[in-house]
Amino acid sequence: MKKFLYQNSLSIVFLLLFIGAFLGQIIFGIEEYNKELIENGGHAVTMSNYLTTGHFIEATFENWESEFLQMALLVWLTIFLKQKGSSESKGFDGEEEVDREPSPQRKDAPWPVRKGGIWLWLYENSLTISLFVLFFASFCLHFYGSFKDENTANILKGAPELSLSDYFAQSRFWFESFQNWQSEFLSVFAIIVLSIFLRQKGSSQSKPVDAPHNQTGE
């Protein structure tokens, strides 16, 4: 168990942070939602009912959507684009280890590499594909939750409910999306540029402390 925890400590810590933050979102989210319902003449909901509301679904997947989008674009764009001096970029001097052609003869090569064909193509692009699929799924769930929350508000106000197509053309959903996308793109820009000049000793996301600013790659 000690060895398992040591070898997986980075993912375990981030999973625990996610669970803690997610529980915090639910606890404070239902409190905020019930306050809004009561202020608008509605009735408070239980925890189980809250988890099916548009308020919860929209708030959750609006954030997941932007995270998966920025990670997918970063993984994909770093294939082709470079930034001199950044630890997040590939270097300029020839091909790197990640560019080499996969060999089925390599020891312990994953089975898609040994299988070849379409399985190899899918596997060698699987990280980007998976992140874009997660983005698209989160995008759809964000839209559904936002649409459902908007119609809940309309019912409380005595206004007519909107159709999916009508809501898709309105500003609220796109405002929610773009306000998250821009923050994620800014954070990626920040780590790309700051890693040119700044260091963190011991981190895989930083260049060595004594590396020159123009050194590109970790």
- Mass-distribution shape: elongated
Give the H and E element order. HHHHHHHHH
Summarize model confidence as the mean pLDDT.
93
Uncertain spans:
none
Gap from first CA to last CA: 31 Å
Tell me the β content. Answer: under 5%
Instruction: Give the biggest beta sheet.
Output: none
Number of beta-strand segments: 0
Number of helices: 9
Alpha carbon gyration radius? 23 Å
Summarize the amount of helix as a percent range. 55-70%
Could you characterize the architecture of this molecule?
The chain has nine helices and no strands. It has helices at 2-7, 9-39, 47-50, 54-80, 111-115, 117-124, 126-157, 164-168, 171-197. The protein has 218 residues and is an all-alpha fold. Helix 4 packs antiparallel against helix 7 (126-157).
Q: Brief description of this entry?
A:
With 218 residues, the chain is mainly α. The chain has helices at 2-7, 9-39, 47-50, 54-80, 111-115, 117-124, 126-157, 164-168, 171-197. Helix 4 runs antiparallel to helix 7 and helix 4 crosses helix 9 (171-197).
Question: How do the strands and helices of this protein lay out in sequence?
Answer:
Blueprint: H1 2-7, H2 9-39, H3 47-50, H4 54-80, H5 111-115, H6 117-124, H7 126-157, H8 164-168, H9 171-197
Helix pairs in contact: 4-7, 4-9
Features:
0% strand; 218 residues; 67% helix
